[in-house]
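Subject: design request, 94 residues
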């Protein structure tokens, strides 16, 4: 699974709304702080997977950025951009 490879190489990973289900399925949330959509059981599944659920518009834990829903994009996108900007030198070819 590609998400496991990204975690193994400490690459940026971002998930919003129900996106953390992929991370739950991959077993990648144990001990991580994260958030997700709260309305239909996702937080409970995150907790069962060992995550520390936080009801915040954006949560950053190392290389992981999570957010609750599209209305949180104004907080989510700057965190993703900050993470990518900080890693830009890793991707430059020249």
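Subject: RE: design request

Done. Sequence follows.
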């Amino acid at each position: 699974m590609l998400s496991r490879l990204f975690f193994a190489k400490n690459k940026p990973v971002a998930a919003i709304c129900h996106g953390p289900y992929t991370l739950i399925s991959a077993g990648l949330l144990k001990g991580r702080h994260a958030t997700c959509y709260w309305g239909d059981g996702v937080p409970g599944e995150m907790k069962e997977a060992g995550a520390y659920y936080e009801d915040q518009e954006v949560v950053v834990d190392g290389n992981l950025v999570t957010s609750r829903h599209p209305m949180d994009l104004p907080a989510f996108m700057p965190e993703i951009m900050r993470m990518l900007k900080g890693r830009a030198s890793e991707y430059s070819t020249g």
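The mean pLDDT is 92.
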